[in-house]
Write a structure and sequence with these properties.
Blueprint (H helix, E strand, L loop, with lengths): L1 H10 L2 H13 L11 H11 L6 E2 L5 E2 L6 H5 L7 E2 L3 H15 L3 H7 E2 L3 H10 L3 E13 L6 E11 L6 E11 L5 E4 L4 H6 L6 H11 L2 H19 L2 H38 L5 H12 L17 E5 L4 E4 L8 E5 L4 E8 L2 E6 L2 E6 L3 E3 L4
Parallel strand pairs: 4-8
Antiparallel strand pairs: 1-2, 3-5, 5-6, 6-7, 7-8, 9-12, 9-15, 10-11, 12-13, 13-14
Helix pairs in contact: 1-3, 1-10, 2-3, 5-6, 7-11
Length: 371
């Protein structure tokens, strides 16, 4: 992994890489889910990756190889991949990518779970830049238990307003539920592997590490890395998307998450350490409640509300049927388009979208010229 990262460092200028590394180290608990294409995997691994000789322990620490169960020590991985050999598994992965690109959390949670609230928030930000996942190929090996699979998925990530798709390699641990249906165990997603928000089975994690060290897995990774480097070197728009646009979006997202957590912690501290009312405060409150009510102001003649127009300042922004990324997208708004503003709700602006009230992130609009 470090060798692969060196290639990315050679591509990115030193100032950019140092800034990303510094930024990741300050906010590493939020990263992992961005590893949906190869470049982000490499950069995020540099910020959050665990050392290969360690694996999660349900008690909260780590286990060494000596603590691995006999089941894992005796387990032998398949020597070769099967490529697109399981139709049900292929359909599962394709459905995952389609739901992810569309920020369709309701469908996503039916086939991949658990998904934390922070990961859902991240998906809402990242998916706004995704047009589609293309040319999906599944490479599978049998997992630790019957009906489970270790899956490396090659895909080409097509961003809006970028001609060249970015080749990438994702990992999924797929299992079979009690009804015989396949599902993605999201405990072993890059997001949870880096943050450990949900407890992982150390034996499964140990098998995943073995899998990642196999020669054919490493060879596949190197092949995809070359395709990725060629794609980025040949398209300046793709390079800009990966080195500037996405990191900027992540910075804003992390800042917002940090702010919300700080507010929550401050509120909790205030609740726990709140002092009882002083006598003076009680008297003030009493005096305020006993004051005579003011004379009502004379009624004014209601006026028609002023029509306000807003202009979209970013390309291909999701427009949703509610104020939140958990709501369904009803269409896309493009840069330069002007809409009538109907109101605001938190970080969202309500607009008249083709005759229907809908919501767009406020950060993606500005007052239209002449407003």
């Amino acid at each position: 992994m470090k060798n692969i990262l060196d290639h990315i460092k050679n591509f990115l200028n030193k100032g950019t890489m140092d800034a990303v590394t510094s930024f990741c180290s300050r906010n590493k608990r939020y990263f992992g889910a961005a590893a949906l294409f190869l470049a982000m995997i490499l950069v995020l691994y540099n910020c959050t990756g665990k050392e290969p000789e360690e694996k999660p322990n349900p008690s909260g620490g780590t286990e060494t190889e000596g603590g691995t169960s006999p089941e894992v020590l005796e387990f032998e991985l398949d020597s070769e991949f099967e490529q697109d050999a399981n139709e049900a598994l292929n359909a599962l992965v394709e459905a995952y990518y389609e739901a992810y690109a569309g920020d369709n959390l309701e469908e996503l949670e039916k086939i991949a779970y658990p998904i934390s609230n922070n990961e859902k928030s991240y998906i809402g930000v990242f998916s706004q830049y995704i047009e589609a996942y293309q040319n999906i190929v599944c490479y599978t090996k049998s997992g630790l238990s019957e009906g489970s699979y270790l899956v490396s998925v090659y895909s080409e990530l097509k961003f809006y307003s970028v001609d060249t798709p970015a080749p990438g390699l994702d990992f999924f641990y797929v299992e079979t539920d009690a009804d015989g249906n396949l599902f993605i165990n999201n405990l072993y997603s890059p997001y949870n592997l880096s943050r450990a928000e949900n407890e992982m089975d150390p034996n499964i994690y140990s098998v995943i590490l073995k899998y990642e060290q196999q020669q054919d897995v490493a060879a596949l990774r190197q092949d995809v890395e070359k395709k990725y480097n060629d794609a980025v070197a040949g398209d300046v728009d793709l390079a800009t998307m990966i080195t500037t646009t996405i990191p900027n979006a992540m910075r804003e997202w992390i800042d917002s998450v940090n702010a919300m957590e700080q507010n929550s912690e401050s509120a909790a501290d205030t609740q726990q350490t709140g002092e009882p009312e002083t006598e003076q405060a009680a008297e003030t409150e009493t005096s305020e409640t006993t004051e005579e009510p003011e004379e009502p102001a004379p009624e004014e003649t209601p006026q028609e509300p002023e029509t306000v127009k807003v202009e979209v300042i970013d390309d291909s922004v999701n427009v949703r049927n509610g104020a939140g990324t958990e709501n369904d997208a009803v269409g896309k708004a493009n840069k330069g388009e002007v809409y009538t503003k109907l109101g605001e709700s938190g970080e969202w602006t309500q607009i008249d979208f083709k005759g229907t009230p809908a919501y767009i992130k406020t950060e993606f609009v500005q007052p239209a010229a002449g407003e």
